[in-house]
Amino acid sequence: MASTQALRGRHIVLGLTGGIACYKAAELARELVRAGATVQVVMTEAAAQFITPVTMQALSGRPVFTSPWDARPPGNMAHIDLTRQAGGADAVLVAPASADFIAQLAQGRAGDLLSLLCLARPAARCPLLVAPAMNREMWAHPATQRNVAQIVADGAAVLGPDAGEQACGEVGDGRMLEAAALCEALVAHLQPKPLAGRTVLITAGPTFEAIDPVRGITNHSSGKMGFALARAAAEAGARVTLVAGPVHLPTPAGVRRIDVHSAEQMLAAVLPEAPRHQVFIATAAVADWRPAQVAAHKLKKGGSGHPPPLALVENPDILATVARLPAGQRPWCVGFAAESENLLHHAREKLRRKGVPLIVANLGPATFGRDDNAVVLVDADGEHALPQADKLTLARQLVHEIAARLPAAAP
Ligand code: CTP
Question: pTM for the whole thing?
């Protein structure tokens, strides 16, 4: 899910080292600029064999630097100035990072502008993110793995690599992540971390209640809000488990996902997880009823003119069940209320009926399947509106609202 201008006001140093994945760095520069960042490209000599500085300059809209002897920066010290200019770089992202470059980082060597700059950056406020790209044997080599472990121990974040087909024709680990995934990872890295050390369990999507092997009862929930919340909670530093009904959405990075179909399966997945999590957010549009019996075979019309009788039974209320767990096993619960009218009245009534400290109310038909939403937070203290925004922006705001209301974590 794209968030508009998620890097607005950010200054990113994008480093390229030698590798065929440099072609993806062109797209990455565009993604970063599109997300609102100013991008300062720095390339090694080897990178310039794969893609020209002219291309990167055109895409980033700034002159590209390749040499520590480049006299253009005011102090004539490119390796210092490039992470301090434009109010200071918010991050250095090296993509692609070759095996040789990672080895240089691990040893603290400074043989060219990019490695110099990584060493000289103000590490406390300018994180280093590294996206490896190399042949699978190079990636698996103990020397590379040792070097990667070392740079992680030194504070770098390693993004990927991915597995798949490689430029050399081999298949395995070592492909650089795609530009969109790298941009998303950078955005996530730069988010504040109000849920650091917390665990969050989320239900999302519709449920599907089978009538027979080919039919069922479901609803229009797309799961987008729940998936955006899972992403936002993970970005905010939480360990997130997402129990998802049948939806066609990719799992947010770093999120553990459990797929279910019916309300009963969702409850069975949630119950053992709930006591292991500090926060439970129920965004799922759980079907209120299910057929009393599921036919073993497809129900046939048979030409009788009579529809089959469809007896329904009520599904368990997952949120209310979790909210009633004994203290010590009960996470802090957040419910959603999707209403078609009388929003605040129904939300307040749900707050009481479900026994939860917070209800997030929205007009269901106005939001189902859409990328944006507006909600009202209803709790014991009153009401707080979050105006119309894309679901990821809203999810990030909600995560902050939830973090602010959480009781202090047990020491
Ligand atoms: N919910 C749940 N299990 C159910 C029904 C609802 O966990 N069987 C959760 C939803 O995920 C949501 C909240 O309860 O967080 C409210 O859901 P909603 O469908 O709005 O309310 P209902 O309890 O179904 O009440 P009503 O049908 O009267 O609106």
Answer: 0.90
